[in-house]
Amino acid sequence: MSMSRAEIAKHCKESLKNIHLGTDDEGVQTAKDFYKYFFTNFPDLRKYFKGAEGFTADDVQKSERFEKQGSRLQLAVHTLAEIFENEMVFKAYAREMVHRHRVFKMDPALWIAFFTVYTGFLNSRGAVNDQQKAAWMALGKEFDSEIQSFLKHLGLPHV
Ligand code: HEM
C-alpha cells in the first residue's frame, strides 16, 4: 500500500517525537547517541570521519566534536521530515547535502544506506514501527533519487 506525501511526512515526524533537539542534557545526549550507534554498528564508515577512524562509543560520549556533529545530523533529519511535503524545497535540500559532502568522496551507494542506519538507530531506542520505517524508506528513496541525478549532472560518481 503506497502512502501519500502527507502520510509519509506524518509518519516520519511521529517517529522523531523522542529525538529531542536542544542544549539541555537530553538534547546533548540524543545528539551523541546517533554517532555512538553509527560507529558501533557500522564501524567501516568511520573512515570518512577524519581523526575519528578508530572511535568507539565511549570516545563519542566524551567528544565535543560529535556533540556538535550529532546536533547537526539530528537537525538535518528533522528537516527532511519537516520539508518533505514541499517537493521543490526537499529536492533542493538533497542537492545541498551533495555539496556539503562532496569533499568526503563518499561511496554514492551510502546515500540510500543512511536510511537503514537511521531507522536502525530509531529502532535501537524502541521508537519506530513498521509504518514509520516504510515512510522513512519512501522518503529516502526520493532523497537518494534526487542526489544520484544531481551527482550525474555534476559528473561525479553515482549509482
Ligand atoms: C557531516 C558523512 C549522510 C547530514 C558529515 C561529515 C561526514 C559525513 C564525514 C563531516 C563530519 C566530521 O568529520 O566531523 C556521512 C556519511 C553518510 C552521510 C558517511 C551516509 C552514510 C548524511 C545524510 C545527511 C547528513 C543523509 C542528512 C540527513 C550531515 C550534516 C553534516 C554532515 C548536517 C554537518 C556538516 C554540514 O552541515 O556541512 N557527514 N554523511 N549526512 N552530514 Fe553527513
SSE layout:
Elements: H1 5-15, H2 25-41, H3 57-61, H4 64-83, H5 87-101, H6 110-124, H7 130-153
Bound molecules: protoporphyrin IX containing FE.
Protoporphyrin IX containing FE (HEM) binds at residues 45, 48-50, 65, 69, 72-73, 76-77, 80, 97, 100-101, 104, 106, 110, 113-114, 117.
In short, what is this structure?
By secondary structure, the chain is mainly alpha-helical.
Which key phrases capture this entry?
159 residues, 7 helices, binds protoporphyrin IX containing FE
Verbal overview:
The protein has helices at 5-15, 25-41, 57-61, 64-83, 87-101, 110-124, 130-153. With 159 residues, the chain is mainly α. The chain has one domain: Globins (Globin-like, Orthogonal Bundle). The model has no long low-confidence stretch (mean pLDDT 97). It binds protoporphyrin IX containing FE. The site of protoporphyrin IX containing FE has 20 residues, from helix 4, helix 5 and helix 6. Belongs to the globin family.
Biggest beta sheet attributes = none
Small-molecule binders: protoporphyrin IX containing FE
What is the element string, with H for helices and E for strands? HHHHHHH
Number of helices, where a helix is a run of at least 4 consecutive DSSP H or I residues: 7
Mean pLDDT: 97
Q: Tell me the number of strands.
A: 0
Report, as a whole number of angstroms, the end-to-end distance. Answer: 27 Å
- CATH architecture group name: Orthogonal Bundle
Percentage of residues in DSSP E strands: under 5%
Query: How many distinct domains?
Result: 1
Question: Multimeric state of these chains?
Answer: single chain
- Classified by CATH, the class is Mainly Alpha
Indicate the radius of gyration in whole angstroms.
Answer: 15 Å
Q: Structural class of the helix and strand makeup?
A: mainly alpha
The outline comes out as globular
